Amino acid sequence: MTPRVVLYVEDDAVNALLMEGIVELLPGTRLRVARTGAEAQRIVAAEPVDLLLCDLRLPDVAGDQLPTLLRQAGLPATVPAVLVTAESECVAADLARDAGFDAFWCKPLDVAATLRSLSEWLHAAPRATVG
């Protein structure tokens, strides 16, 4: 069976390592990390993604612009997008809603809660297909 693919757009290596550790706990799931918006665009143009996780502060693009850019690059509208940010909950909620994210998670991440939420999003999302 093809693994579910989570794309995490995150330029901070420590945050990326934490997410790698969390995703490793989900059987049949693989994490792809993009350090920039441009790298994320290349990934979604080349392979199917089942869930998008996106940091707000990236070196080349504002994270709140990324869902639109990635959808233009081939990410299907059915793929859920979650904003992952160190902003306060109130700010994150507004940013997520305004930018077209389906949800938001505030850093520092609670590992157990993140694992549950990842599982729920991946279970609810349709399987990604190529083309």
From TrEMBL:
It comes from the Bacteria. Keywords: Phosphoprotein. Residues 5-122 form the Response regulatory domain. The keyword Cytoplasm does not apply. The modification 4-aspartylphosphate is found at residue 55. InterPro entries: Bact_response_regulator, CheY-like_superfamily, Sig_transdc_resp-reg_receiver. Pfam families: Response_reg (PF00072). PANTHER family: RESPONSE REGULATORY DOMAIN-CONTAINING PROTEIN, STRESS RESPONSE REGULATOR PROTEIN 1. This is Response regulator.
